[in-house]
């Protein structure tokens, strides 16, 4: 039993040294997109009115750009982790 305790302590010490040898990895801040202000719908008009449809299409464009920016930020962080 005493030998098992010594082996366990030795393995823990070796594992600790291996972790310490890797060091601390610093990660730089990646650019994140600014949350867009989405155009509002006019509640007085039908949803399929031309101005509401235009706002819907603008919202779609803004959200697609925002999602692309978020994906770029995630890829930036993933790239730093791989290095």
Structural class: mainly alpha
Strand content: under 5%
Order of helices and strands: HH
Kindly report how far apart the N and C termini lie.
43 Å
Number of strands: 0
General shape: rod-shaped
Mean pLDDT: 86
The profile of the biggest β sheet is: none
With helices defined by DSSP (H or I, 4 residues minimum), what is the helix count?
Answer: 2
Outline the secondary-structure elements.
Layout: H1 2-22, H2 50-82
Task: Give an overview in words.
- The chain has 83 residues and is mainly α.
- Helix content is 65%, strand content 0%.
- It has 2 helices and no strands.
- It has helices at 2-22, 50-82.
- The two termini are 43 Å apart.
- The model has no long low-confidence stretch (mean pLDDT 86).
Compact summary:
With 83 residues, this protein is mostly helical. The protein contains two helices and no strands.
Main traits of this protein?
single chain; mainly alpha
């Amino acid at each position: 039993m005493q030998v098992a305790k010594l082996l366990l302590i030795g393995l823990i010490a070796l594992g600790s040294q291996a972790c310490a040898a890797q060091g601390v990895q610093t990660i730089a801040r990646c650019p994140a997109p600014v949350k867009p202000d989405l155009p509002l719908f006019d509640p007085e008009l039908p949803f399929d009115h031309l101005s509401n449809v235009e706002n819907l299409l603008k919202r779609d464009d803004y959200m697609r750009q925002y999602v692309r920016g978020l994906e770029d930020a995630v890829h930036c962080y993933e790239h730093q982790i791989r290095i």
